[in-house]
Amino acid sequence: MDMEYFLELFFSGLTRGSIYALIALGYTMVYGIIQLINFAHGEIYMIGAFVALIVAGVCTIYGLSGFAILILAAAIAILYAAAYGYTLEKIAYRPLRGSPRLSPLISAIGMSIFLQNYVLLAQTPDYLPFPRLIPSFAFMDPVAHIIGSAELVILVTTLVTMVLLTLLIKKTRVGKAMRATQQDLSMARLVGINVDRVISLTFVIGSVLAAIGGVLVASYIGQVNFYIGFLAGVKAFTAAVLGGIGSIPGAVLGGLIIGWSESFAAGYFSSDYEDILTFVLLVVILIVRPAGILGKVRKQKV
Amino acid sequence: MTDKKHKLLEVKGLTMDFGGLRAVDSVSLTVHEGEIAALIGPNGAGKTTFFNCVTGIYTPTSGDILLHPKGLATRRLNGLKPNKVTEMGLARTFQNIRLFSGMTVLENVMIGRHCRTYSGIFRSIIRNRSVREEEQEIVETSYRLLEKVGLEKFVNEFARNLPYGAQRRLEIARALATDPLLLLLDEPAAGMNPYETSELDQLICRISEEEQIAILLIEHDMKLVMKISNPIFVMEYGKKIAQGSPLEIRDNPKVIEAYLGEEVDA
Amino acid sequence: MVREFKQSLLIALWFVFLTFPLMVVRVNTIENIVVWRWENILWVAIGAFLLSYCWRYMLARRRQQSKKAEEGIDTRGPLQAALDNVQLRNRAMAVLLVLAVIFPLVFDTYQTNIMVTALIFVVLGLGLNIGVGLAGLLDLGYVAFFGVGAYTYAILNANFDLGFWIVLPIGGVLGCLFGVVLGFPILRLRGDYLAIVTLGFGMIFKVVMENWETLSKGPSGIANIDRPGLFGLEMTLAQSTVYIYYIMIALVVLTIIVTNRLKNSRVGRAWIALREDEIACVAMGIDMARTKLSAYALGAFWAGMVGVLFAAKTTFINPAGFTFMQSAIILSIVVLGGMGSILGVILGAFILVLLPEYLRAFSEYRMLVFGAAMTLMMIFRPQGLISNLRQIYQYKGSKEKAAHDG
Ligand SMILES: Nc1ncnc2c1ncn2[C@@H]1O[C@H](COP(=O)(O)OP(=O)(O)OP(=O)(O)O)[C@@H](O)[C@H]1O
Ligand SMILES: [Mg+2]
């Protein structure tokens, strides 16, 4: 039980958790507004990672190198993830407004399967190594056995992203419109908010966050394949539920809890059951407190 | 006179909070057997919430809801699940129509029979004689109820395809199918034209007379309320502010201020 | 006209942009090769252009149909109308049954084997249909119950030498038991949460089977499971396949009868009502927890039973056979065929199992098409290929009764 090992697990949990949180934000924001589990959100994350891989791969092969590639790859990945998220909403969810609750969910599952197989067929079923783009910073050397450079980059990026997101939601006009729509969709429409635009925007923002997560994970873990979105998506969704779906701080908290519990469980016990730990957590939290840790219990109006 | 009537539903100090909002604030009221009582009040007064508490959809924050079925022991309804409340003899309709839209009109009413019939999974698979008889009983009873509310020409139509007024009546038929002692109607005339409304008031009177069912109704249509109901309870901001006969209510200054005044102004 | 053309052109452009990195570029970061597949731009453009026309047409049609339905006009197609005719439908079923019975006499073992697989999925579809189609409980981990049945037989057979016929009911009961135990705490959850939790159960089952070596032999699975016996008779592989085929036919017929009876019973109506509106349902005196649990557990029962048969058929099972994708396939059978519709689910199972089997070229694109189909069905034909039959009841009514009495 030495401290260093504990800290190492702590930081790796924090890193993972912050990435789950990034993805969870997309779930939570979409759910908050249209009460849909965007099952295909994990696939957007995967597409983000894949596009980044393609850009980075092409750049490396044509002789570019270094940190600049990472920025370029991330930018293009974000652009594409946003485009996919936007299109997804338009095709698969918008025509289903006002239909029974399960219809859009089934549609989302369909899209998730479709996108996975689209990438599988268009690219490859194999894992592809992601080029190492995050350099090792010299100033990190003394603590490198506890927290690596990549982890630092991830943590800083996530932090900055979240601050920006909070500012966007709290301070800007669109943010206000989003909050209003989340409170009461039909009321928001009545007071002249273009609800369709707000929903599209929510998908776009969620996708951007997922893509950032995707790029970070890909460069951290070092490989990508068409299937990574599924499990990450489910875990991130669990994080959102755990923290209280619809709540942005809740998503972050949920992500961190899951990241830490995975990291510590794997570090101190065994990693055999790592992937299902999340589900056990999910089942327990839903039974004990369905609204999540920070979620408000809302009674359905009758 | 009134003292002799048998108390059926007795609500004492019912309170319901939503977060910081007190939607129903210690409301007490009593409905006697054979009465058509009305609950009125401006929008947002807490009438529907009151219904939801009484029927078990919400668990009230505090207060007592007692049902005194004639000849049986008194039952406390707070905290019971809605289906138990319905079994005890309270049936309701909804302000925003909640029919089983993908089922036929007849099937909607048949669902109401559920809590008065017994066949379970195994017997339904075997489908022996007693099951078939029970099934037929459900169908006949339901059909008769449809005749009663005047929907027999729609029997096999999907509920969602019915005109609005007919949907409201179907909700009443479905509630009646549960053999209630007390029927709670949440704005049964909302969205109806004057002709439909007058048909509805006849229907409500008929149900009260023929079936010996007490009725408590929420309604904004004052003409209807004044015509058929006695007593009338008035709510405003979650509180009961008045109760009495239509005449008393009409002359009550508080009510005029809270409710009727509002309409006169408009 | 011109506007539509322009719009489609824009959509085509958009999709060219959207698919560019994934469809055109292919990098291999292991060997550092980039392949540029420029021709794909053309295909994407043409495809998106044409599809956008279809999309618009279908949306317009959907609007028309819903308008017609509002006015009470019959919008059924000729096939649906024919199927709504009970007499015709019964005759069709009889013909199908005869065809099913003579099938193995006409076709060879290979074909029969494929047919058995299709029939397994028919039962799975019908079982899931009880939960998803009738009661509206979206179960994304249904394959776990199938796995419970399969592992029950495999383990009991390997360790205690129990035969197929004894384990068949045990598998069903155990599946059912799992359904009750898992369902009990979670069934009060809202529909979409329930879906995710059941998805979790599916995954938990797989991971447990992978790691609990002593029980399940881990990822390598259990082999040499006995085929079904027939009074100790020695059977060749071909004979055994035919035998399994007939067992499967019997199981399908049993499932159809049971689900059909339940659907038109007091319990079945309660399921459907629950799907339509939970709050109205409880307000009408239906016990939600019990009703949901019965639907969930009964669905699990069929999965458990057919799981036993699956293990006996393949004689080898491992955790990799019980993935989310299997659950998704079963779900798409129900969605495609028509939620709540027995005939629809049967048709759905045949399409989804046989199509990839006989169109080899198609099998690669199988999941791609299934995924797209699920979304498209939800948008354009939520009732599925064959929609649920409207139940018509016989009644006398008070007027006729009066006439009788008088
Ligand atoms: N589930 C709920 N959660 C939070 N607040 C609620 C809920 N249901 C009702 N309220 C609030 O309680 C108050 C009373 O609402 P209620 O629906 O009971 O009014 P009402 O008298 O039926 O009005 P109306 O005539 O418009 O139907 C309102 O302010 C409403 O916003
Ligand atoms: Mg109301």
Automatic annotation (TrEMBL), chain A:
Listed transmembrane segments: 20-37, 44-63, 69-88, 100-123, 143-169, 198-221, 276-295
An annotated Gene Ontology molecular function: L-phenylalanine transmembrane transporter activity
Gene Ontology CC entries for this record: plasma membrane
A Pfam entry, by short name: BPD_transp_2
Subcellular location: Cell membrane
A GO BP entry: L-isoleucine import across plasma membrane
Protein transport listed as a keyword: no
Membrane topology of this protein: Multi-pass membrane protein
Key words of the record: Amino-acid transport, Cell inner membrane, Cell membrane, Membrane, Transmembrane, Transmembrane helix, Transport
Family to which the UniProt record says this protein belongs: Belongs to the binding-protein-dependent transport system permease family. LivHM subfamily.
Name of the protein in its database record: Branched-chain amino acid ABC transporter permease LivH
Automatic annotation (TrEMBL), chain B:
InterPro entries hit by this protein: AAA+_ATPase (IPR003593), ABC_AA/LPS_Transport (IPR051120), ABC_transporter-like_ATP-bd (IPR003439), BCA_ABC_TP_C (IPR032823), P-loop_NTPase (IPR027417)
GO aspect biological process, one term: L-valine import across plasma membrane
Record flagged with keyword Nucleotide-binding: yes
Record-linked Pfam families: ABC_tran, BCA_ABC_TP_C
Domain ABC transporter: residue ranges: 9-262
MF-aspect GO terms: ATP binding; ATP hydrolysis activity; L-isoleucine transmembrane transporter activity; L-phenylalanine transmembrane transporter activity; L-valine transmembrane transporter activity
This protein's GO CC annotations: plasma membrane
Domain of life (superkingdom): Bacteria
Keywords annotated in UniProt: ATP-binding, Nucleotide-binding, Transport
PROSITE patterns: ABC_TRANSPORTER_2 (PS50893)
Endpoints of the signal sequence: none
Identification of the protein by name: ATP-binding cassette domain-containing protein
Organism for this UniProt entry: Pelovirga terrestris
